[in-house]
Amino acid sequence: MTLVLTTRFIFRSIQVALFKRNHGCQPETRIPQVDPILGYDIFRIQVEAFKNNNVLGLAYSRYQKYGLTWSLSLMGGRFYNTIETENIKTILATSFTDFGIGGRQEACRPLLGKGIFTTDSATEFLFGQSVGSFDAPQGSDQERFGKAFDLAQSRLGMRIRMGKLAWLYRDTNFDKACKEVHRIVDRIVLEALQNTPSNNPEKPFDEEGERYVFLTELIKSTRDPQVLRDQLLNILLAGRDTTASLLSNTFHALVRHPHVFRKLKAEINTLNGKKPDYETLRDLKYLKYVLNESNARYALKDTILPLGGGTNGQHPLFIPRGGIVAYSVYALHRRTDIYGPDASEFRPERWDSSWPPSSSGKNAKVLRPGWGYLPFNGGPRICVGQQYALTEAGYTIVRLVQVLGGLEGRGGDREWVPRVALTACCQEGVKVGC
Questions:
Q1: How many Å separate Cα 408 from the centre of its chain?
Q2: What is the CATH number of domain 242-299+341-433?
Q3: Binding site: which residues?
Q4: How far is CA 52 from CA 218, 410, 417, 418, in A?
Q5: What is the spatial distance between Cα 64 and Cα 116, in angstroms, rounded to a whole number?
Q6: CA 12 from centre of chain
Q7: What residues does heme bind to (predicted)?
């Protein structure tokens, strides 16, 4: 057995060396570590950052210090990190099949099972009924669902960050939350199955055919209750909190940039109080710029990345089979070479092709970030709910602006401090008056 393992190790080492040489690969920048195996020193820094709500800031500072591509050792594995646009394009598009989500799938399995990876609107669209979390009576299934899903989702973030050691994570509250979520969704699935006869799966719930319900369409493909539950929860994870966070972040910025709010209100006033439809929302250009800016500022086999290796980061980089590759959208959207020297400032005008790309007004050019702008991911894994989220957020902003005389912050001059789970939102919430 020892001889076999030794032979396999030698063969694999030769194979990797030849692969690197043939592709001109160079090693990436590695973060200096006291513990280069388990990365306990790095782990302690990460935990401290989570306690202080500085996860995104820590990642951003590392990219500033170590460059666009670097790696670290953590929990027995090597994590490759990049905000090089060509690498992200490779991961999400050109070499999409080389990069799987196996590790993340295992970490999320207790809650989401096997799946594709403003609650009320999302659950009504998915399940055919709203969980009514905004006005749910205390102790009701609706209230319990919201609390259980929130808790389970926050713990999933920790499991994902533990990488290959996620199976060591133990939390009885997490287990209870997963069971509660499953119980409530299973009940909704059972009701839907009972309302859809197996001998007529094409028959919709709504006799008039006026509503599209995701669960209804799923039942046309399968009547397996667990498959239905898993798929619903995977989609719900993407639709829950994200739109609410986008709205919160946008209003957090608007109350701190009154000139932006005045300009947005002037555009919306051209509707003369009319409720916007989809086409109207598309024509509101400044609203689009505001949402773009909010999204930008706040939000398996051996292969190679085209850039990231060598001392200058311009050589191909070898990624071993099973290697973990991550990119920080937060840091990506703050690249000054893409967004200008004021990349960290909230300035919707940067998206206007007729506007200078920086506050100085010099070196005007059109902003074309390409793979440098990924609020909804890209390639085959692009968010399928992108237009739904933007339409929902845009409509809500328009209606609120139409009835508000103005905005004022009620939370003092607090800066945006992120609370990171699977999504990022403002830690203190957004307190706004009019």
A1: 29
A2: 1.10.630.10
A3: 383
A4: 42, 23, 9, 10
A5: 33
A6: 36
A7: 383
CA distance 268 to 247: 17
Q: Is the pLDDT of residue 292 over 90?
A: yes
- pLDDT at residue number 136: 55
Structure tokens at 173: 């509250």
77, 164 in Cβ contact below 8 A? Answer: yes
Q: For residue 362, which phi and psi values (nearest 5 degrees)?
A: -100, 160
pLDDT value at position 104?
A: 67
pLDDT tens-digit map of 332-390: 999 999 999 999 999 999 999 876 554 444 445 678 899 999 988 888 877 777 888 89
- Check residue 372 and give its pLDDT: 93
Q: What is the pairing mode between strands 408-409 and 432-433?
A: antiparallel
Every domain of the chain and the residues it spans: 105-117+119-239, 242-299+341-433
Helix (H) or strand (E) holding 269: helix 258-269
CA–CA dist 166, 337 (Å, integer) = 37
Summarize the confidence of residues 288-315 as an average pLDDT: 68
Interior angle at CA 239, CA 234 and CA 244, nearest 5: 145
Cβ atoms of 55 and 420 closer than 8 Å: yes
Structure tokens at 302: 């051996």
Give the integer Cα–Cα distance in Å for 268 and 260.
12
pTM: 0.77
Instruction: Say which amino acid occupies 265.
Output: K
The neighbour count for residue 170, using CB atoms within 10 Å, is 7
Instruction: Retrieve residue 176's tokens.
Output: 């209870």
The annotation places the binding site for heme at 383
> Residue 183, Cβ neighbours under 10 Å: how many?
13
The partner residues of 409 in beta bridges, in order of sequence, read 432
For residue 319, give Cα distances in angstroms to 95, 306, 308. Answer: 12, 11, 11
Q: How far apart are the C-alpha atoms of 229 and 231, rounded to whole Å? A: 6
76: left (phi over 0), alpha (psi -120 to 50) or beta: left
DSSP state of 77: E
**Pairing state between β 324-326 and 424-426:** unpaired
Contact (Cβ atoms closer than 8 angstroms) between residue 181 and residue 113: no
Three-class secondary structure of residue 131 per DSSP: coil
